[in-house]
Design goal:
The protein is an all-alpha fold. Helix content is about 85%, strand content about 0%. The protein contains five helices and no strands.
Length: about 160
């Protein structure tokens, strides 16, 4: 029974990572226009709400759009690391997850060059990589902190 549980756990973590990659792929196939976005958010509000949103979006769109890039690839890094940890040690899992996530970010931008009204940009790969590096740093910090706690417990016994 424990062997089946471990295989299921491995499969589950890998499946979650692949599902997130599908989410990234599908969102990069889609072009959401400002009008459609505004329409779904402020349709039921008065006209001044749309003017307010136009002014807000003109000023802050970069934070939301590029922030989503950072977040989606940071999540991919974490999910890939978690899936690989079932097969290999922590350090190798971080390195492979980092390389794979950056390669996926580059391939995602390349894919967008074939999508109507979208364009692949090297700057977006750099922004995606920033999210990946942030996630890798958090993973390394947590692993180091956890390791020092375990060593302290062992020393105290």
């Amino acid at each position: 029974m424990p062997c089946k549980d471990k295989k299921y756990k491995r499969f589950r973590y890998s499946l979650i990572a692949v599902a997130w990659m599908l989410v990234i792929f599908l969102t990069s196939c889609t072009r959401v226009t400002r009008g459609a976005f505004v329409g779904t958010i402020v349709r039921s509000h008065v006209a001044h709400s749309e003017r307010w949103f136009d002014a807000f979006w003109e000023r802050y769109w970069f934070i939301f759009v590029k922030g989503y890039h950072v977040m989606e690839f940071a999540v991919l890094m974490v999910l890939c690391h978690r899936a690989l940890r079932e097969y290999i040690d922590h350090r190798k899992a971080v390195c492979l997850s980092l390389l794979f996530s950056i390669a996926y970010a580059a391939s995602d931008e390349w894919h967008q060059t074939f999508t109507p009204y979208r364009g692949g940009r090297a700057t977006d790969v750099i922004i995606d990589t920033a999210g990946i590096l942030f996630a890798a740093s958090v993973i390394a910090f947590i692993a180091k902190r956890t390791k020092s706690r375990i060593e302290n417990i062992t020393v105290c016994r």
